[in-house]
Amino acid sequence: MPHSYDLIVGLEVHVQLQTKSKLFCRCSTKFGGPPNTQTCPVCIGMPGSLPVMNREAFRLGLKTAIALNCEIPQFTKWDRKQYYYPDLPKGYQISQYDLPMSQNGWLEISDPKKEFAAKRIGIIRAHLEEDAGKSLHDEEHGKADTRIDLNRTGTPLLEIVSAPDMRSTKEARVYLTQLRLMLLYLGVSDCNMQEGSLRVDANVNIHIQGPSGKIATPIVEVKNLNSFRHVERALAYEAKRQYDVWEETGRTIKDYPKQTRGWDDAAGTTLPQREKEESADYRYFPDPDLVPVITPKAEVEEVRSGLVELPAAIRSRLEKTYGISDYDSDVIVLQGLPFVAYFEEVAKLSGDGKKASNWVTQELLRILNDQSITLEQFPLTAPQLANLVKLVAGGEIEITRAKEVFNDMVANRRDAAAAMSALGIAKVDSSELENICKELVAANPKIVADVKAGKQQAIGALLGQAKKRNPNANPNEVRRICLELIAKMP
Amino acid sequence: MSLTRADVEKVSLLGRLRLGDAELDTMTEQMGRIVGYIEQLGELSTDNVQPMAHAQEMHNVFADDALGASLPRDAALANAPKKDAECYRVPAVLGE
User: Fold this and answer.
1) Which residue among A77, A84, A262 sits closest to B16, beta carbon to beta carbon?
2) What residue ranges define each of the domains in chain B, with the CATH number in brackets?
3) In this structure, what DSSP letter does residue A363 have?
4) What is the pLDDT of residues A133-147, one digit of tens each?
5) How far is B7 from chain A (nearest CA, A)?
6) Which terminus of chain A is more solvent-facing, meaning fewer CB atoms within 10 Å of its CB: N or C?
7) B16, B53, B64 member nearest A77 (Cβ)
């Protein structure tokens, strides 16, 4: 490729807020109900009906905006965004235009694998709006009709618009992962992508390093991104496509309008969708059915001080408190709050944070993945696992045997002591261990000579022999004692 | 500023109104007069007037997040020009 280019990505995330009832009426927001059984005159847009704002929806939006470091203007209002679509019964969506409930925030992202340096992704705004209904495409009746289910109509959505601050598909994925994690820790949404609780649109273009300066390609909004993996694939595809189109046509952002394209994951391509209407075409105006909301500074501070500890703060606390790596803290925090609590209990009770971290991120996670179970279904309590970790940390049992013990504890739902006696594992008495070592050293003059000549690795053969004499012999101890014995030999 | 025929054509398209030639003429004239009437406000100085988002001096009207009754499905679908047992039916949406 003759010119290098940078990928420029901004993401719009729509997240359904976890309320019982809809944003402007008291119909249920429950997912999966029989079609058109959760609607009322307000959400299907009957003349004369009046919306009233759901207090909890506003509070959840506020909480999220504050966690995203947004400014919360004292005054906010709602506007009508007008367009025609069959899943929008009123002919307009109640959204926020010029005075959103929050703006100018940021979310910090970092990569434990260090593929990019930690950076802040700007949040342009987060505003509260209502969801539309669903179009069901009728396979049975051929392609003649589209069926409309309005159960989802009016469900509260928070639209979180990032600045175009991401420079790689990886950064986009990490942003989405961290944002989702934060929303889950805040408890504002279930973020279930299969059920549409979290939806992503991507705005993407590339900046090409041209012969006489930077050239920006026309911006494309990519829709139909149903998983984070789709986002990554679609962005990579778009970058390449935009480069090729630029080479072919020379089109730039200055002479070509923004387009909307849909991601087709099976085909691995984006396809053009209807041209995006200019925002003036939505003819926004303040919704006269709703009154503005004024949020006093004191209320903002009250919400801020009541926030739970957020993922980024937990990660750095775990690293400081338990001396674990940023990679491990990331793995632990990604599993969610109950997992963090479990780890902390194991770390505290065992007195060895690093080992506790190894056990939960490797052995425990392996069991959860292999058996497709949640932490709640995992048979060992934190104190039980802590006990095993403590035995390992104290040198009472070596690591390979400890893993056998762990597997037995999980399989037979018993604690470390019971598992060890069932497996015939007992700590080898130190004098017995010393005797074994003495015998081995005496019986292997060749190895002793090798070690004396500087070939330390020759000692390895003795470890295997020690294990044969007593399977409970701790290889690290055997190595240490044998080396000491050899050093003392003339 | 007076309204042009092209303005009215655009607005009628956005509002999904199919207007004939004669109607477009009438609407251009009538809507132009309405806009002109509102434009009189431009004569006033609003430098020291706060923008207003609502005609009422009211704010923070909320409802608690509690479930209320929804319509029976039959009632919800009653006015639909086309429906089946569960859903509204509309002409196939193309281009999505």
Assistant:
1) A84
2) 5-43 (1.10.20)
3) I
4) 999 876 665 567 899
5) 12
6) C
7) B53
Instruction: Tell me the residue type at A20.
Output: K
Spell out the domains of chain A, with CATH numbers in brackets.
5-298 (no CATH), 309-422 (no CATH), 430-488 (1.10.10)
Q: Tell whether B38 is within 8 A of chain A (Cβ).
A: no
The tokens for A134 are 């669903």
With CA atoms as reference, the chain B residue closest to A45 would be B76
Give pLDDT, residue B96.
Answer: 43
Considering only the beta carbons, identify the residue of A54, A146, A149 that sits closest to B92. A146
Min mean pLDDT across A112-116, A264-268, A324-328, A414-418 is at A112-116
Tell me whether B62 touches chain A (CB under 8 Å).
yes
Report how far residue A21's alpha carbon sits from residue A23's, in angstroms, rounded to the nearest whole number: 7
ipTM for the complex shown: 0.90
- A466-488, pLDDT tens digit by residue? 888 887 777 888 888 888 888 88
What CA–CA distance (Å, rounded) separates A76 from A112? 38
Q: Is the pLDDT of residue A396 over 90?
A: no
Count Cβ neighbours within 10 Å for each residue of A264-303 and write b for 16 or more, e otherwise.
Answer: eeeeeebeebeeeeeeeebebebbeebbbbebeeeebeeb
Q: What's the pLDDT score for residue A141?
A: 57
Residues in chain B with CB shorter than 8 Å from the CB of A135 are: 93, 96
**Chain A residues within an 8 Å CB radius of B51:** none
